[in-house]
Amino acid sequence: MRHDHGTLTFQSCFLIIFTRAVDQENQLLQTDFVLTWTACTPYYDFDTDMEPWAVADAMAREPWSQEFFHNLQDMHQTHYEQFGTFEGTVSVEGYQDRKIIIKGLRDHSYGKYRDWSLFHRYGLQMLHLEDGTFVNVGIVSMPATTSRLALGYVMNPDGSKSSVSSVDWDLSTCGEDGVQPKTFAFDFSAGGKKYHLECKVIRAPIFYIGFGWTAKIHEGLAEFTVNGVPGWGIAEWEYRNHGGLPEEFGSVTLE
């Protein structure tokens, strides 16, 4: 780890993960990850780095009341994240070991509490472009505080970062039926520059989290193009789930 000016930043870390995977025949397979993660961008702290204009726009859309400002304070969470490189070996029972070198994102949130049932939905795109640019951009809808919060940032190849100031994307007309579209596009601005993002979802595994399984996550593995530059990443879309854990997800018991 690296210590910078009183702030602790993860420069690198070593991860060993022992878990199990399920194959197409619903059989459990021992799966091991032995990885080293090394930071390749500065960290982004949403408490201090967010664009004030984006926050003001989100607040201005809500009816102001004593309850509204109480909720903003009471439900506040600190969130920070950093892009890096995962390098190491993945071993799956019955298959040849695979060496991997991939870009990824580490993040952490903390606060008074974390209640996934407060989210209506969100759509976040986290990606790495071939020119060395990293992007995280999207919309969060959490009606108890802000029903439409545009957020994100661009990490430029020279190490500088720009906060997203606006996102020209109506999330309510894109996948509001609970089905993540295979392709979509929108414009956004960051650091005074305009961007056009296009996404093609290749595969989207689904999982459930939260107390009572109140959140349904589509983890869309996707190809991206931003201002004509190709890249790869995740289109992570969350939906409020009211039906508990589906029966098919509870059919496999990990021992």
Structure commentary:
This protein is mostly beta strands and 255 residues long. The protein has helices spanning 52-60, 66-74; strands at 2-4, 7-9, 12-22, 28-39, 44-45, 77-92, 98-111, 121-129, 134-142, 146-155, 161-168, 183-190, 193-203, 206-209, 215-226, 229-240. It starts with a strand and ends in a 15-residue tail after the last strand. Mean pLDDT is 89; it is low at 1-10.
What is the CA-CA span between the terminal residues? 34 Å
Q: How would you sum up the global shape?
A: globular
Q: What is the count of β-strands?
A: 16
Spatially, the strands of the biggest sheet line up as 8-9-10-11-12-13-15-16
Reported for the largest beta sheet, the result is:
8 strands, antiparallel, barrel
Mean pLDDT: 89
**What fraction strand?**
over 45%
- Uncertain runs are 1-10
Written as H for each helix and E for each strand, in order along the chain, the element string is: EEEEEHHEEEEEEEEEEE
How many helical stretches? 2
Q: What is the CA-based Rg, rounded?
A: 19 Å
Q: Look at the helices and sheets and give the structural class.
A: mainly beta
What level of helicity do the residues show?
A: under 10%
Provide a brief overview of the structure.
The protein is mainly β and 255 residues long. The protein contains two helices and 16 strands.
